[in-house]
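debug: dumping io for the single-chain case to check the tokenizer round-trip. Nothing else runs in this session.
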Amino acid sequence: MSGVGVLDKAVLILTACTNGASLAELVHETGLPRATAHRLAQALEAHEMLQRDHEGRWRPGPKLGELAGSTADVLLSAAEPVLSLLRDQTGESTQLYRRRADERVCVAAAERASGLRDTVPVGSALPMTAGSGAQVLLAWEPPEGILPLLPKCRFSSKTLAEVRRRGFAQSVAEREAGVVSVSAPVRDKTGRVVAAISVSGPIERLGRRPGDRLGMAVIRAGQKLSGL
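debug: decoded output
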């Protein structure tokens, strides 16, 4: 604790809302009085640090994403030419994803110029339960970061072990019918996985084993963005 009371309490609230929390859960998790927890959560919501979902639970708000994104400028600046080169090498659309709670957000992309393609607009929030990007973002997480999501996932712990072994993930119609993708990790200077770089396209063009064709290209692209 910092010793600055209101700041410490606000951090407790933000931490408790990482995976969503009702007012009763906030009180239980933080130990704060109900009125205090409610007042602080509303104040954080007013500043867009928190937002309500359709069930009325508080979750991380868009301002936190903006602030986190500002620290990723180096990665985002480096990502544009790497994604464009990977698109040109593979002939398919490319994306860069970051995890945000139980979602992954497309923070950069390079689209195939014409023809049938998988379009993922920058800013799109996709589930952490399906797709090769989700597999990569979960594969190197500690067990406590994986186990709560696994029952909802369209892949298994065995799949994640295979991702760690070969260094890339592939999915076939896992997130969307007719779409396949291949993803590899992007790591920070400590080796922690901070993003997933992906190639995606139609199954009729890439087949049911897209990793055989695209795996090494995606791994190399991830290595170029790692350590920034």
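debug: round-trip ok. The chain has ten helices and eight strands.
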